[in-house]
Each structure stands twice: as C-alpha cells, then as structure tokens.
Design brief:
Immunoglobulin-like; six-stranded mixed sheet; single chain; six-stranded parallel sheet; TIM Barrel; alpha/beta
Length: 603
C-alpha cells in the first residue's frame, strides 16, 4: 500500500510547466496494477463533532482517468491522517483509496465541494467548490506483481472470478462470530445494551481473541502501541487453515450484539469515528494484501433494517453506504451483504422490516455509486416459506448478484441451492448461491470436541458438498447460539479446527481437479439421494453423502473414462480403474464415510 501527500508531486509539475506526463519517469507516482494507493489532500480544518458536519457538508470525489475512461472514487474525512495511531478526531486531511485495474498512464483530479448536505447531493455542481492541495496529478501503473490474482469480478452466472489470474472463486469461510469487529482494541467500541433477544446467543464484554495472540507474527500490523494482536492473529490462523472469507456485521445497533457500528456514537448516525474506521482498515488491509481473504461485509441485521431512514435509502443510509464504499470498497474481494435475515419475518413486526422495494433501492444505490462494482448479496431467512415470499419478487433484479442462504436444516442445502439457481436463471438475472448459515439456530456447526452426536460429518456431506454439487459457490460456517464458542461468544476459531481442514480439502479438490465452471447439476444421472455435477459426455462428479455405491449413467459418454475417488473427510484421492462410457455403471466407494468420484474422458 502506498500513501502519499500529492501536493509534493504537484509542485514538480508546476515547475515543469504542467506538461502532460506520458512515461513512468515523468509521472508523479508509480504503482503496480491492483495495489492500493491512498492519496491524502490538505483541505478544510474540521472535526468529527464540528458544527458544520464534515461527513454531510463536505464532499470529496476524485476522478481517475485512464485513456477515455473516468473512474470516480469517493473520498472521506481522515482527521489528522494518522488517526489509527493518534486517536485523532480533528484535522485537515481528506483521503481517497484507489486500486488501478489497468496498466499505463492515469491522471487524477480531486473535486471538493462544501454546502449543506452536499455529501448526498448527486448533482456534481451542488454546493460551492473549494480548492484542496494536490488537486491533480498523474500515476504510472506497472504490471501486476508476481502471483497477483486481481479483483473478484462477476464473469459467470454462478461464480465470482479473479480478474487477473482468471481462477474461479469458491468460498470456504467463517460466519461466526457475526460481531467479529466488536473487539476491545478498536477505538470507540462498546456494547450499548446488555438486553439480549430470546433465542440468540449471549456474551459478556467485547471480544479479546486472546487465544490467537500467539498467531500474530513479527512484522504483522498493530496500532496504537501494539494493539490488535488478537484479531490479527485470528485471521492469520484462519487463512493458514484455508479459510478465505470472513462474515461480519458493520452495524448491529439494536441487534443481537449491539456492539458494532461505524459511528462515533451509536445514537448519532451522521458522524463517523475516524480512528475506529482507520483501525478496521488496518485489519482489512492485512486480510486483503497479506492473506487474500474476502471481506463479507454485512450492512445491517433484521432488528435494525429500519433504523436508517425508516428502511429507505435516504440521507442517513446513503451517507452510511458512501462512507463504507469510500473507505473499504477498494479491496480486491468484497461482498456487500444487504442485511442479515433481510425482510419480513415473525419477529420483525415489532422492530420493522425493509420492503422488497426498499431492499432493491439499497442494492441500486450500491450498483450506481460503488465504482468498483463489488458483488452484492442478500442474506435470507431460514425457512422456505419466508425465503420464497421475500425473494420471489426480487427475481430478475440484476443489481442483486446472489444469495447468502440461511438454511434451517442441513439436508435442505442442496435442494435450495439448486432451486434458486434455476429460478434466478429463468428470471433473466442469474444469482450466485452460497450457504452462509445452517440451522437449527441453536446449533449450527458443532465444535470439534462436542460429544456425542457431533454433526460435522453430516453437515459436511449435506451442506458443503450439497451446495457445491448443486452448482453453488461455497459456504461459511455459523456456530449456533448454544454451542461452545457460539455466534456472539466465539473467542477461539480452533474450536472448529477439524471443520476448517475438511472444508479446505473440498475446496482444494474442486479447484485442482474439477472444471466446475463448465458443469451443472445433473442428479438424474445418479442414484436417488446422491448428487451429480456434470458436463455430460465429458466429465462427471458424483457424490455419495454416506458412502456405499451409486449408479452413474454414462450413456452420453464414449470411450475410456478415468476414475478418481476423493474422501470427503480428508480430501485424500485415490485412482480407480478406468471404465467404459456408453452405459450405466456401478461405482463402489473405496472406504467408509462420504466420497466423491470424478469420472472423465481418459487422456
């Protein structure tokens, strides 16, 4: 990451007569494609609590131009420019975060405006334009560094894809704790109420993640004299186990945890906490640049859907979204989740709920104003009836990229993934389908040490493989309300160490052996109760959730077919004997437990 005060570079341009640079040697800044660039501008002196609100009454946009394309990125008030360390709430630094997606020459022009509520004024000429130091400059973008994957983009009906490496992304992530950011070392973080809703997990105090302080490594980031080792160590551990996504709320005011919000005060929704958000960004930078993890940013939860603007995308919600996009939208792998358990349900009659129209308006705002066009998803209610009532009217909405499915019983994961993939495709705007929370609500995924009747093996078979074998894009694991290390009280991710390993084993098998982007669900080709993903005639993956044998219909294939078995629990593979296409074949798993078998034309 490169952070610069561009006024210093601008002086060079002025002395040179402001001739347009056209080479790396004459540009103000050089940076590799996809790398983060933070530009700091010296602007008006103000503070978080100033009478003229810096978040509503100033607007910074920076236009980045490459060839004939203009990329407008929102900026934000950054206090003294070092608030993560100083805790400052005042200063004259205004910042923009940018990641270029093309090589060659880029130029920037900062446009700052001042006026009542100008931050939410989409009229580019609204308010009074004011000058900032470093208003224009140039960037030379170099080729990407070795191993760079680029940004996750939507380039397939069912999967996200890394823009640079062209690999497709399958998610194996952590859904708990949902209040991941309720961490003791973040400034301005507190629980505003200790009244917990019946049916939700309970916890005392903020997260410490002490169990993961030993996973922090020399050279890893900290802030404010060594703070942050617990949460940095935690994501280090997860990434080391192959976890590539973390689900977290950024606003749970009046919700389950009541301890995460971007504001300086949970009662004032128009002023943000600069030092807290800078510290979040240290964590997010580490997860992105060093660990390659997705930021699954959940924007609200069912209890506070109407907290901002009564559910509309009005001045409060627009400001909230703009601040998040400005600060965090640049990251390579971002999911904007419109809300946990979004829409009407049996308990939202009291707290209020967003209508379909309000949900669609929120998605439309992000689609219009997020310059990076990050993936937008929607978290669902757990049961089928509520899901269909809420989701059916949203079918065909191209601004919603996919579903973050909550499933009340693991055995429904395969069928519901397949159902919504087919429904959305027929509606003309295909959705990606992840299973991000499994029920029952009090259990979720058991910890490794729960005995007897640990549910991990059945959850692996029915939910992880069930989703992938339906054409789904992967899972995140929810830890339940009453398990050890539950959804709010989770302190040690090693409580599911075994689960991370078998999750990663499945993802790696798909990535290394299965051309899944070319395959679709064809359960009709295997024994009832088993799953099949296939490109008929060329490649078939059959899955036996509880082992035994299955019949695979190869009547559409010709010639010799190779056979590769994979054990679900470990990812261990073993080669079977070649078989002939052109007829149904019986395949017997080589051992006990769940197995997959990949059958494809022999080379």
């Amino acid at each position: 990451m490169l952070r610069l005060f561009p006024i210093l570079c601008l002086t060079v341009l002025v002395l040179a007569g402001c001739s347009k640079p056209d080479t790396e040697a004459t540009a103000d800044i050089s940076i590799a494609k996809w790398q983060k660039l933070s530009l700091d501008f010296a602007g008006p002196e103000t503070s978080e609590d100033a009478a003229q609100n810096p978040f509503t009454d100033y607007r910074l946009d920076v236009n980045f131009t490459h060839n004939d394309s203009v990329f407008t990125v929102p900026g934000y008030f950054a206090a003294d420019g070092n608030a993560d360390e100083t805790g400052a709430a005042a200063g004259n630094v205004w910042r923009v975060n940018f990641r270029p997606n093309s090589e060659g020459l880029w130029t920037w022009e900062a446009v700052m405006r001042k006026g009542k509520d100008v931050a939410n004024n989409s009229n580019s000429s609204g308010g009074e334009r004011i000058q900032v130091d470093g208003q224009s400059g140039s960037i030379w973008v170099l080729p990407p560094v070795a191993g760079e994957k680029g940004r996750l983009i939507r380039n397939h009906p069912r999967y996200l894809q890394w823009a640079e490496s062209r690999e497709y992304f399958l998610k194996g992530g952590a859904d708990s704790p949902e209040n991941f950011l309720a961490y003791k070392d973040f400034d301005g973080t507190y629980r505003h109420s200790n009244n917990f809703r019946d049916g939700e997990s309970k916890t005392e105090g903020l997260h410490h993640y002490t169990a993961h302080e030993g996973d922090w490594k020399t050279g890893d980031p900290t802030w404010n004299d060594g703070k942050g080792k617990g949460i940095i160590g935690a994501v280090n551990y997860l990434a080391g186990e192959g976890v590539n996504s973390v689900y977290f709320l950024v606003m749970n005011i009046n919700g389950d945890g009541k301890d995460v919000f971007p504001y300086a005060n949970h009662e004032d929704h128009l002023r943000f906490d600069c030092s807290k958000l800078d510290q979040w960004e240290i964590l997010f930078d580490h997860m992105d640049d060093n660990l390659g993890m997705m930021l699954h940013i959940v924007l609200q939860e069912t209890e506070n859907e109407t907290l901002l603007d009564g559910g509309d995308t009005g001045p409060e919600r627009s400001l909230f979204l703009r601040e998040l996009v400005a600060r965090f939208g640049h990251h390579r792998a971002v999911t904007w989740n419109l809300g946990e358990e979004n829409g009407r349900n049996k308990w939202s009659e009291k707290t209020g709920f967003q209508t379909n129209e309000q949900t669609a308006a929120m998605a439309a705002w992000l689609a219009q104003y997020d310059p990076y066009q990050n993936y937008i998803s929607l978290h669902t209610h757990p049961n089928e009836k509520e899901r269909e009532e809420i989701l059916a009217p949203l079918l065909g909405d191209a601004n919603i990229g996919g579903l973050s499915l909550q499933i009340d019983r693991p055995e429904f994961s395969h069928g519901q993934t397949k159902f919504w993939l087919e429904k959305s495709s027929k509606a003309g705007a295909a959705w990606i389908a992840n299973v991000d929370e499994i029920g029952p609500w009090f259990r979720g995924l058991d910890p490794d040490e729960r005995t007897p009747y640990n549910n991990q093996d059945s959850v692996r078979a029915l939910t992880l493989w069930g989703n992938l074998m339906a054409g789904g894009a992967g899972v995140e694991w929810y830890f339940g309300a009453r398990n050890a290390h539950n959804d709010l009280g989770m302190e040690d991710w090693r409580s599911r160490d075994r689960a991370w390993k078998w999750t990663n084993a499945a993802i790696r098998f798909f990535q290394q052996h299965v051309p899944f982007a070319e395959m679709e669900s064809h359960d009709e080709l295997v024994t009832d109760g088993h799953f099949c993903l296939a490109d008929p005639g060329f490649v078939y993956l059959a899955y036996l959730p509880f082992g035994g044998e299955t019949t695979l219909d190869l009547s559409g294939a010709t010639g010799n077919m190779s056979v590769l078995w994979v054990k679900g629990e470990t990812g261990e593979t073993s080669q079977g004997e070649n078989i002939a296409g052109g007829a149904k074949v019986t395949l017997l798993a080589p051992g006990a437990g769940d197995y997959g078998v990949l059958v494809k034309r022999a080379e």
